[in-house]
């Protein structure tokens, strides 16, 4: 029966606005299933059969029970966490002990209080299953005694066979219940922790954000929460393993008496050694976690700034940094691998050592002690039961140690400082919309104030402009109003709700309408008014699906201007009381800027009755404002109306004069003067025509491809090649030898007991005993050696495979064309380097080894039983047929469910990364709760897939173990029917082997499926290596070292397209620059300006024609030979975390003196000298601890250092104030006077002093002349100049 879904599958969701998106989902039929169906999971048959017929899709899966969903689990756990915090605070308040006061709320305690009932329930299942596991050897003992005394009633034998069958069936059912609820509990714990982490991330203070980078926080989600989940799965082993060991020892005492203490002594010696190994692994894992954090952080930044790396040809430098971190990680992994050799030895050799010591002492205690069949095989069965807890216990101890590290990291994050609610008073009853009273603020409490002694009163309904130089604190004032900064003293009060437009437009990966409506109720008429006011209607006409067009991650398929206008529209639509606008006109053309000011911000706009605080460098709008704040070094230098400041302040008048001098008679330019540039993918423009949409941005984020069908065997072969064929065959040989040694031990014991019965006297028995004991010990030593050697080989081979595959993937990704990064979400790429590489590093080789072991184990078991009971082959054949039938059905379904589960992980990371990028906007709008709900949606989608995976595993286990139990039953039955033809020793051997086959069969299929499923990670890694790469970085045909020496750029019949299936973005472009010429490139939106730049740097390759620079066809040389000899100052000021010196010179080519000279030329020297560490000043992730203008000036310094003969300018001074703009322009003119400069003009005033202007339209050159001649010709350029208001008709006539 289908049930309506409570939440949207599409993320981000819009519960209020998209009821039509609700899908029908399949409720689980388990509730209404019969008892037998529930116990055998037959209610899941429909999914298994459907999965066999066709590849399963998300809609085919059964939903979770309400109590298990994230919508139920997260709120309950969050409530318990809050309760813990309150309890802890009370204890600290009334405690006088320093230790008690320093104690923080325990995450573990909160988890126990939330899930204690479920955990106890699971523990009870485990106790029952463990007890049942010890009944089987006792029944086997009775079977052996029955076979020794054939005169007993034959029905006793049948009774024992049936009893054995009933016990193993019960054990199977109880064990599967334990496994099911245990796995589900672990998933719920992970869900609860992820929910709490997400909520915490929404409330982190700025100092905490600096402490925890995006990569580190993602690692908490993907690694530490997973570690906690993995431990929960094995948590019961901590008490269960000692219980099983104790029960086994008690039963062994009954068989072998005090000699069992010899076995205990071996255990006592080995367990402390395991503890030492666990401690060492703990230290190694801690180091490895730090390396992983660094790797993810750097990788995230590299992917965010990949265009800059390609333009500057810096990929090898950053690839080397990632490789070095990875090298350290693998060295640690290798060391940990060698330590696991000891664990492998424990698994295999402790049961042998325990049995050897026990048997040896048993003989020494009394020379008359004889090993009978019932003693040997009962003891061996008990020793076999001992093997698993003895192996698992040290592994779980090691996991506990590792989880302790993860818990510590999680608690550090959860205890991190949050934004102080007292930073701002929002329930302000006064007469002003915003009021600062003697207020000082800082970004971190340990740092000096960023804003000092602010006393500001902003009336309701006023339009306030905040102006000032780069780094003067303009944007910080808005952050203080939002409560984002730490208040040191004074008060700041705000009345009503807030809408915020950030410097860097934050766009969600969802439909355009969802970005604007942003969770509010859709009011069609007002929505249309907002679209019109924000100049979005022309764009919607060009979009393929209008406002239902999906916007890619980070807004990659729309221009910078569109991003900014969508961001503004979101704020306007919210209907807030106060609007904080951080230069929303920054990325739009002149006439659009005018439109936005008039229709939205100004006195006749949609916000005319609202309080508007506008940060800007646009001085020409100041007369239209009600209040002006002039910021200087974090203080309000001047405040008043335009007329007041004009009459009272010389500085203000000088500022206006600089602006006027700079722009002469074109005031309208000011409207689009930028305080900050968003991070675009191609260009920053205000609209799109159809060509632009089709060519430059007509792509959307690709959803993760979910493979169907079987895994290609070639993927496993590729892994084995990376592993090394020598290691592969050595591994197989050692595991074969290991299994033969194990079988040899059991057969030797069987022969021993036979011969012991036939020994005529004590002397003969003593000689026989010593000989048998020696051979038994030798076989055990051979097995131990082979185990150690196999583990060593495996560690080396796995290390080689991990190293090779990671290197191949990283190298491939760094060589991929830029278009790849525009269409693939960063979360998806990072998932390959984290989750998929983790599977290759830690799990895949383990699954392969286990599968090989199980295969050999099953074959050995069947051969031993058939050898002893030939009739058993009649039972094996039909059971093998049934076995493979079940396996075929299971693998088809399980494989696809696992793939769905794998694909459902990426949206969790992507949504989280998106949230972190826009956390200030989310908080400003007060939408934290909505985003928390969205997080629960994506987590719940993953949980649904995981739940179906759990049930599919239980479905398989019940059926396979039932077949295994049938083997046990028929083995016992045939032993009874055989009568005197089979002696008691053979019966003991057969039944002990049959009891082991159940687990081996189950493991064999499970690991086969695990190999298939996890081989997808290898497929996914190789998928990136198979994508078409960019052209080679270096070719044999290299240009001369002094090239280019003239700077002549020539396009000859040049044509280019973004994709083979699209039309031409540039058509028959032919032009030639002179040496050292200054050329402006202009055109309406979508004309192909940025495409021209992309082609020059070969970001987009040619479809026809050629580009010649100083006589060399650029397509004939390597990409790095080309890009390394070109220079660009891009719009987007991308910085990377690390030192300022590293950001200026990552290739370490220049001296400190050259760096200081470049900083002086771009007017940053004074600022850098004021920093404590100067050039070694740490730049935070994304350069967030520098202002937007300072980031742009650092980019200018890069260009000054890299001085080449050809420079491309993409409005490098868009983010600086007028005074700095004027100085920078003069620096460019002076320092690059002997260079050819191509200036991409988004605003015409920046190219009016160019020697020639290249005018593009629809990818073609329309005009190419001097500015004066173009204006006289009354063509497209003249028309654009008129529209911009730069030159009036009278001026044109005069000229």
Q: How would you portray this structure in words?
A:
By secondary structure, the protein is an alpha/beta fold. The strands form 6 sheets. A 6-stranded mixed β-sheet has the order 7-8-9-5-10-11, with helices on both faces. A 6-stranded mixed β-sheet has the order 17-20-21-14-22-23. The chain has a 4-stranded antiparallel β-sheet with strand order 13-12-15-16, covered by helices on one side. Strand 22 and strand 23 form a beta hairpin. The chain is elongated and about 120 Å long. Residues 120-402, 729-1003 form the ABC transmembrane type-1 domain. GO terms for molecular function: ABC-type transporter activity; ATP binding; ATP hydrolysis activity. InterPro entries: AAA+_ATPase, ABC1_TM_dom, ABC1_TM_sf, ABC_transporter-like_ATP-bd, ABC_transporter-like_CS, ABC_transporter_C-like, P-loop_NTPase. Residues 434-658, 1049-1283 form the ABC transporter domain.
Principal-axes shape call? elongated
Number of H/I helices = 42
Give me the Rg, rounded.
Answer: 37 Å
Instruction: State the secondary-structure class.
Output: alpha/beta
In percent, how much strand structure appears in the residues?
Answer: 5-15%
Q: Name the assembly state.
A: single chain
Low-confidence stretches: 1-23, 661-699, 1288-1295
Total strands: the figure is 23
Q: Main β-sheet: number of strands, strand sense, barrel status? A: 6 strands, mixed
Helix amount = 55-70%
For the record, give the distance between the C-alpha atoms at the N and C termini, rounded to a whole number.
80 Å
Mean pLDDT: 81
Strand order of the largest sheet: 7-8-9-5-10-11
Domain ABC transporter: 434-658, 1049-1283
Keywords: ATP-binding, Membrane, Nucleotide-binding, Repeat, Transmembrane, Transmembrane helix, Transport, Vacuole
Domain ABC transmembrane type-1: 120-402, 729-1003
Subcellular location: Vacuole membrane
